[in-house]
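Worked example 2:
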Amino acid sequence: MGLIRYILGSDSRRNLKKITAMAEKVEALSPKYEAMTDAELQAMTPALKARLAAGETLDDILYDAFATAREAAYRVLNMRHYKVQIIGGICLHQGRVAEMKTPRKLR
């Protein structure tokens, strides 16, 4: 039974593969959002809200919303989200529990 589970993958492993693929799609949008001006990036919020009002779901706009937030964070804080942080955000969006290690401070 253990060999079959290893070959087929556990439920958690399969879910992680799906979420990792989603995070990679968010990262793939980076060049598009990096090329935007500040005004174009700010205009994404009303555009995403309009898509929601038009009947799209949060899952439909997830990639654009995460890519927008990632680029905005980079421009304001000069820090870009890592893939594991995007994965954690997707897990939270899906209502899952997400736990990430935080590095210890060097003394």
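The chain has a mean pLDDT of 90. The first helix runs from residue 2 to 8.
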